[in-house]
Amino acid sequence: MAEPLKNQYGADVPRVIAAMISAVHPSFNSAGFVREALHGYDALELMSRGKKIARALRAYLPDDYGRAVAILLDSLDQPHGRDPDLSLASFLFLPHTQFVAEYGLAHFELSMCAQHALTQRFTAEFSIRPFLLHHPEATLAQLRVWTADPSAHVRRLVSEGTRPRLPWAPRLRQFQLDPSPVLALLERLKDDPELYVRRSVANNLNDIGKDHPELLTRTVQTWLQDAPAERAWIVGHALRSAVKRGESAALAVLGFGQNAQVLVEQVQISPARVSMGGTVTLVFGLRNPLSCAQTVLVDLAVHYVKASGQARAKVFKLKTLELAPGQTVSLSKKLSLVQMSTRTHYPGLHQVDVLLNGQARALGMFELVNASDRAGVAASDLVE
Prior knowledge:
Layout: H1 12-24, H2 30-38, H3 46-60, H4 65-75, H5 94-103, H6 108-118, H7 129-134, H8 136-146, H9 152-161, H10 173-177, H11 180-189, H12 195-211, H13 213-223, H14 229-238, H15 240-244, H16 248-253, E1 263-270, E2 273-275, E3 279-287, E4 294-305, E5 311-323, E6 328-336, E7 348-356, E8 359-369, H17 374-383
Helix pairs in contact: 1-2, 1-4, 2-3, 3-5, 5-6, 9-12, 12-13, 12-14
């Protein structure tokens, strides 16, 4: 299992922040701040660790919010020595954004200036959300201005911070009910020069489509009119969850509205029984029996057994095939059954389907068994 991300966010983080603040504010009580930040720190998860540090900052920075934020911003460019290759290197500034989110709601202009500076070092997509809840009109107006900001980080904040279903963050229920204010912002970003921003736009549309599938389809159909390749990519990425759900309207937008008239052949799922932590290889062929070419969107659905004993499908993207008349193409996929932080595997029969233009066809199944049953697996393999 992968190492928890919080292990990269250890006791060195508050110590580094203390040193950076002390460099610009010598009266800062570094020892007291570090002591308070680390009290109970080890038991906390990543985001809670950031909030713990933010609350310690509140206790040891000046009571006046404006002075406290000014000190934090002055400290941003101080040397910190954190390894830039760490996946969480930029998370050094997570407590700074959480400080603004928790203590800056009554100081809108100051907090917006702070968000603008901070998001260019660590995303303010989490800390902007309380302002959208408590100051929706003013915050949306500020975000509209930021859609034209010279910084790609700031422009990305507009789309990422307004995602209704942003991971690691509370949902924005008002935008789940009525996403029109968000769509107005995305309209201004749909041809952004940076892929970094366009990917965020697509992710936001993908979120909207989970609550408003018809609105998503109408929006992307409009966007596809005279669309450059970059905007067409946004549409495809925005429709990915709708395609995985097999929504016919989304498939039609991408040109896969018709049932694929292909034959599934030569299916192999091996081994048929596999122990926890092993791998399963899926191989199958697709043959076009028609006298005309076909374009087929091919995905794979694995029905993973859950703790309840029920199964839930996980869809894996495979590829888009251009099948000539009579052509057969062989496809394969290797599934890892190692326990992961994002997916826990449970023993049982796992059904596997191939999705052809969103329509499921059964390939077969494999049985996942506990490691203690390894001897039984070996014996069955000998018999087979």
